[in-house]
Specification:
- This protein is an all-alpha fold and 445 residues long.
- 83% of the residues lie in helices and 0% in strands.
- The protein contains 19 helices and no strands.
- Helix 1 packs parallel to helix 8, helix 4 packs antiparallel against helix 9 and helix 11 runs antiparallel to helix 12.
- The longest helix has 37 residues.
- The C terminus is likely disordered.
């Protein structure tokens, strides 16, 4: 819980920042500005989401190095991850023109909204190296069992973003460019701050690790071929897995939009319940990354099994808590998000699907953290591929008879399938998931 709580706080700041940007644009008095912010934010969310492997792979490999007491390897992972992240970020900056063309073609926004969103894109794209670099740094901090620094950096970034955006918009008279500049300034400042903290913390952590006897000379436990996925394979697996997640989420939005504005609004509001739950469960997933990787690297199978049990206990407790909150809160939660009575009324028949989300999704979130810590990316990819197949099959088969109910049934089945497949893989190949104990090396006088 001590590792999970800072990550939960970091995650909660994400939607608050989006709300602040919308509020700033909303006070300008034109709905086109709000729509432009939504379009621009969506483009970058999808683009950066595809690079989630930079954080996840770094977290798992670093945690294993930490558990094995291999300080030099932990630093090498950080250097490689930062180099890769900054390289991808620079490529995005260089290729910003074709990226912008493709992104706006896919978004299919109205001409007036696109005209406002283009300056937002043109400014924010220069933050790509900082954002992707921060992914690598956050993954490294989690792997080093430190979720406090990412939390502090996230809070600082969001506060600076809001203050800078307000200053640029209301102080200097800029409009959407002011929000974009505020975002850009905050991204680079937070990256530099995280880099400085990583430099400081690495010295402390590596010094502590140096006082411990390493478990193995090269790899955390066992042979590299048998127990550790190569970095390139790890990156590719997580990238393909992310494509599956993006496909399901984008299609869910598209399928809702095809049913009309009211259903789209209903689905968008109810998805906030899913997102809120996911922000909390991701905190436990991050703890799973850190602890599972640590004990795997240390060759401590007993502690690894204990971590799995504890994470599922906490996860199930949170799932039950959210289910009760959603059941008691009812559509009152939706009224907090909108004053449109027609939309709230239209959401009532579908609300029961929101009650299933926590229990259907808890295993997927918990296992994702554990699999990342164990660098078992192929299992994550397989689970997402099969779950995506379940989602699209159910939606296409049941849509004529059930309409939007089929979409929500497919989403819950997709979440449930991810967790079930990962559970099955763990049970069947449990011996391969757990490390083989390796005796500590004895020093020679």
């Amino acid at each position: 819980m001590l590792l999970a709580l800072p990550s939960i706080v970091s995650n909660v700041t994400v939607p608050l920042l989006g709300l602040a940007d919308v509020a700033i644009m909303g006070h300008i008095g034109n709905a086109r500005f709000i729509a432009a912010i939504a379009v621009g934010s969506m483009i970058f969310n999808v683009l950066y989401w595809l690079f989630a492997f930079l954080r996840m792979a770094t977290s798992g490999i670093t945690a294993q190095a930490f558990g094995a007491g291999q300080g030099a390897k932990a630093l090498a992972v950080l250097r490689r991850s930062l180099a890769l992240a900054l390289s991808f970020g620079l490529v995005m900056v260089v290729l910003q023109w074709p990226l912008r063309l493709v992104a706006f073609w896919l978004m299919d926004a109205t001409p007036d909204v696109e005209q406002l969103a283009i300056p937002y894109f043109n400014i924010c794209v220069w933050g790509a190296p900082a954002v992707l670099g921060a992914y690598a740094l956050n993954g490294w901090f989690v792997g080093m069992q430190n979720t406090r620094v990412p939390m502090l950096v996230a809070i600082g970034q969001n506060v600076l973003n809001i203050l800078a955006s307000v200053a640029f918009v209301f102080g200097l008279g800029l409009q959407i460019e002011g929000v974009a500049l505020g975002t850009l300034v905050a991204q680079w400042c937070s990256f530099v701050a995280a880099l400085a903290l990583a430099w400081r913390e690495s010295g402390k952590s590596i010094a502590v690790m140096a006082t411990k006897k390493p478990i193995a000379t090269e790899e955390p436990s066992g042979t590299k071929e048998a127990t550790e996925t190569s970095s390139s394979t790890l990156h590719l697996d997580i990238f393909l897995r992310t494509l599956c997640l993006v496909a399901v989420n984008l299609y869910f939005t598209s399928a809702g939009a095809a049913q009309g504005a009211t259903i789209l609004a209903v689905n968008t509001l109810m998805m906030q319940l899913y997102l809120l739950f996911s922000y909390f469960l991701d905190g436990f997933a991050f703890a799973g990354e850190a602890l599972a990787g640590k004990y795997y690297g240390a060759g401590d199978a007993a502690s690894l099994r204990l971590v799995v049990r504890h994470l599922f206990r906490w996860g199930l407790l949170m799932a039950l808590l959210f289910t009760v909150l959603y059941a008691v809160g009812g559509t009152a939660f939706l009224r907090l998000l909108t004053s449109d009575a027609a939309v709230v009324s239209a959401a009532a028949p579908y609300y029961r699907w929101a009650l299933l989300i926590p229990l259907c999704g808890v295993a997927a979130f918990v296992w994702d953290g554990i699999y990342i810590g164990l660098t078992r990316s192929r299992g994550m990819l397989l689970a997402c591929l099969l779950a995506a197949l379940v989602f699209f099959s159910l939606w296409l088969a049941l849509r004529p008879a059930m309409g939007n109910h089929a979409l929500w049934l497919a989403l819950n089945a997709y979440l449930l399938a991810r967790g079930l497949v990962q559970t099955l893989l763990y049970l069947v190949y449990r011996a391969d998931f757990e490390p083989r104990p390796v005796p500590s090396m004895t020093s020679k006088d």
